[in-house]
Amino acid sequence: MTWIDLGNPTPRPSPLPYIPFEWPTGTTTQLSPPGVLELPNLVEVFNSRRSKRSFGLVDEKQLSNLLWLCCRIQGNIRADLGFPLSLRPCPSAGSIHPIHVVISLPEKPGWMRYDPLEHALVTLPDSYATSATARLNADSIVPSEAGVVLMFAAEPGKTFSKYADANSLVWRDAGVLLGYFSLAAHALRLSFCPLGVTGEPWAGQLDKQGRLVGVGLAIVGSCS
Ligand SMILES: Cc1cc2nc3c(=O)[nH]c(=O)nc-3n(C[C@H](O)[C@H](O)[C@H](O)COP(=O)(O)O)c2cc1C
């Protein structure tokens, strides 16, 4: 076995200038905040969570609740990195939150990205081919059926602007987010299964300048 040493992250004495990726404009679907959610208690959720591999259709409200619980922006923090830091339900190294959540709905070809500030879904132009092949790849591991495919597209340049040797921070952020999704999906009575594939090359293809990289794929659906 070859263990690839990702280095030991250290904060830079001064930030490395970074111009963040700007998502193309698309058609926006505004989602609604959940209001009061009736959920099982946390101990019950921790004690009973299991990965599930059968995926029925998720309605917009269920998807909205999941995204809201895991990754909406609760507040921005001023920063000198060239982009805002944010507070969200899950922790992130340096409060940078470099991972974008991109989704493929079963009945709609193409990717949509989750806008965590607006709590909205925005279509990504010209993404039909990449979403279709990503879904096919997911299906070859765990059939996605009527489920939603979630792709984590990291923007490592953000984390690298603050830390040297930041690779492992991005991967650890991906793990934290995956854990949040798995628990929140279970609490919302949804099926959820992480996949071992990274989301490459599809995540990388979303930006021609190479600022995005896949750090995870997962499927979520309603329980049958
Ligand atoms: C990083 C990661 C990758 C995974 N990849 C797959 C996968 O490719 N296919 C699959 O069926 N399950 C996958 N799983 C789910 C595990 O198989 C599952 O968590 C494990 O069997 C324990 O079961 P539990 O989640 O129900 O507790 C993955 C889980 C993690 C955390």
Would you write up a description of this structure?
- The chain has helices at 42-48, 60-71, 128-141, 156-162, 167-187, and strands at 10-11, 28-30, 75-77, 85-87, 99-104, 112-115, 120-123, 148-154, 163-164, 190-195, 213-222.
- It is α+β, with helices and mostly antiparallel strands.
- The protein has a single domain (52-222), classed as NADH Oxidase (3-Layer(aba) Sandwich), CATH 3.40.109.10.
- The protein has a seven-stranded antiparallel sheet, with helices on both faces. A two-stranded antiparallel sheet has the order 1-9. A two-stranded antiparallel ribbon has the order 3-4.
- Strand 5 (99-104) and strand 6 form a beta hairpin.
- Helix 2 (60-71) crosses helix 5 (167-187).
- The mean pLDDT is 96.
- It binds flavin mononucleotide (FMN).
Helix-strand layout with pairing:
Blueprint (H helix, E strand, L loop, with lengths): L9 E2 L16 E3 L11 H7 L11 H12 L3 E3 L7 E3 L11 E6 L7 E4 L4 E4 L4 H14 L6 E7 L1 H7 E2 L2 H21 L2 E6 L17 E10 L2
Antiparallel strand pairs: 1-9, 2-7, 3-4, 5-6, 5-8, 6-7, 8-11, 10-11
Flavin mononucleotide (FMN) binds next to strand 10.
